Amino acid sequence: MKTKISLAIAVLLLIATSCNVIDDLLTFNIDNETSIQIDSAFPVGTAFTIITPDVTTNSSATFENNNTKADLVKDVKITDLKLTITNPSNKSFSFLKSIRLFISTDTNDEIELAFLEDINSTSNTLNLTCTAAKLDKYVKAPSYTIRTRAVVKETLTQDITVKANMKFRVTADPF
Question: Whole-prediction pTM value?
Answer without folding.
Answer: 0.81
